[in-house]
């Protein structure tokens, strides 16, 4: 089965063709980073206009790259949410028109579920139960997956997402946008033990994350030590390198410490780490160490599939279509979409329309 995937939830316009949910025939991504860089973050209005201009050519390029004629496509999978509403609407409308024109099914996919499926291309099949850490610019969650397509949130962020914290701290240190890769780059020559940051304790005892306190601690440290932002993002001072390395180490300690603790309690058969922050090598190494201790494999997406892409959307869509689930043409983009348990009947089919929200 050939699935055309479409992703336009934030600042990447992407299309991909995937065969049988695992075989990547093409993955085209147009990143709008350069468009938004002067503003230090994504400008929603500009993003949706750019998606509109790019989506047609990107879908054509994905089909061409896969050497697939549009008429050979069996179904279309598109990101329904969460994301920026104007951006989502472009992908959803395009996908609907494409599917309607060809008379093929289309399915709305939760973007976060898409990130989970980004690991299927270059790893053995996922064994369940699995534990998935999804860390991106908008989300930081740990999901317990008892079986394919079932998700229970066991940990979430109470405030900022991990990627958002990377972006904000990088901005304060004059390291540019997007912040994650910039911090990782300068942290390589920094001392991660130079600044001792403490992790917050969540008062109700849940294994949740909180990164806004860490961000405030960085602000305080910058003021107290009169650190001036780097004038040249490629050549920051040693104290900025040390601060970046210490910040990164603290985020990694929080993410991996929590995942490790939950994994020792729930004993999953597979660990999954995905989302933009999963590009981070310090994070990867720390999770690999934890996985070895647990004696289970950990699956990451390749770097190309860690940040937003449409291949993961096609793969997640295929899993739904295989179970006979599809969306109808009244579906719109949904910025509040959550990934939670889906109500299923005994045969494993989602009851009623495909829904994710409780
Ligand atoms: O998954 P993604 O492309 O978009 C969202 O769905 O949010 O993730 C983007 C986020 C940004 O916050 C970016 O700074 C972060 O992922 N990121 C990284 C790295 N590469 C990207 N964070 C830490 N280290 C990296 N190497
Ligand atoms: Zn994402």
Nearest-angstrom radius of gyration? 20 Å
Q: Helical element count?
A: 11
- N to C succession of SSEs: EEEHHEHEHEEEHHHHEHEHH
Share of residues in strands:
15-25%
CATH superfamily annotation of the largest domain: ATPase, nucleotide binding domain
CATH architecture of the largest domain: 2-Layer Sandwich
Distance between the termini: 30 Å
Strand order of the largest sheet: 3-2-1-4-5
The oligomeric status of these chains comes to: single chain
Total strands: the figure is: 10
- Taking pLDDT < 50 over at least 5 consecutive residues as the criterion, the unreliable ranges are 351-358
What is the name of the CATH class of the largest domain? Alpha Beta
- In the CATH scheme, what's the topology name of the largest domain? Nucleotidyltransferase, domain 5
Helix content: 25-40%
Number of domains: 2
List the ligand species: 5'-O-[(R)-(carboxyoxy)(hydroxy)phosphoryl]adenosine, zinc ion
For the largest beta-sheet, the strand count, sense and barrel status come to: 5 strands, mixed
Strand-pairing-aware structural class: alpha/beta
Shape: globular
Average pLDDT reading: 92
């Amino acid at each position: 089965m050939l699935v055309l995937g479409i992703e336009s939830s934030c600042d990447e316009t992407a299309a991909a063709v995937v065969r049988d949910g695992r075989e990547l025939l093409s993955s085209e991504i147009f990143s709008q980073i350069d468009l938004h860089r002067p503003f230090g973050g994504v400008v929603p209005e500009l993003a949706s206009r750019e998606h509109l201009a790019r989506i047609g050519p990107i879908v054509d390029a994905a089909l061409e790259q896969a050497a697939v004629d549009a008429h050979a496509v069996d179904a279309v999978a598109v990101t329904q949410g969460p994301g920026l509403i104007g951006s989502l609407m472009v992908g959803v409308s395009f996908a609907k028109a494409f599917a309607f024109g060809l008379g093929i099914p289309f399915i709305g996919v939760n973007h976060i579920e898409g990130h989970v499926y980004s690991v299927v291309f270059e790893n053995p099949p996922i064994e369940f139960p699995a534990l998935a850490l999804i860390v991106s610019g908008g989300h930081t969650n740990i999901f317990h997956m008892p079986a394919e397509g079932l998700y229970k949130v066991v940990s979430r962020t109470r405030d900022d997402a991990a990627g958002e914290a990377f972006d904000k701290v990088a901005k304060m240190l004059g390291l540019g946008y997007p912040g994650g890769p910039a911090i990782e780059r300068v942290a390589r020559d920094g001392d991660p033990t130079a600044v001792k940051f403490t992790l917050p304790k969540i008062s109700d005892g849940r294994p949740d994350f909180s990164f806004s306190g860490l961000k405030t601690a960085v602000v305080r440290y910058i003021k107290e030590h009169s650190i001036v932002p780097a004038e040249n993002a490629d050549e920051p001072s040693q104290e900025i390198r040390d601060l970046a390395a210490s910040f990164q180490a603290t985020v990694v300690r929080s993410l991996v410490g929590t995942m490790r603790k939950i994994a020792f309690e729930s004993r999953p058969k597979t660990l999954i780490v995905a989302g933009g922050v999963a590009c981070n090598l310090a994070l990867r190494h720390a999770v690999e160490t934890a996985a070895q201790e647990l004696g289970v494999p950990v699956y990451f997406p390749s770097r190309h599939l860690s940040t937003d892409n449409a291949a993961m959307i096609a793969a997640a869509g295929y899993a739904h279509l295989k179970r006979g689930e599809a969306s109808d043409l009244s579906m719109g983009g949904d910025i509040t979409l959550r990934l939670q348990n889906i109500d299923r009947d005994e045969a494993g089919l989602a009851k009623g329309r495909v829904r994710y929200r409780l």
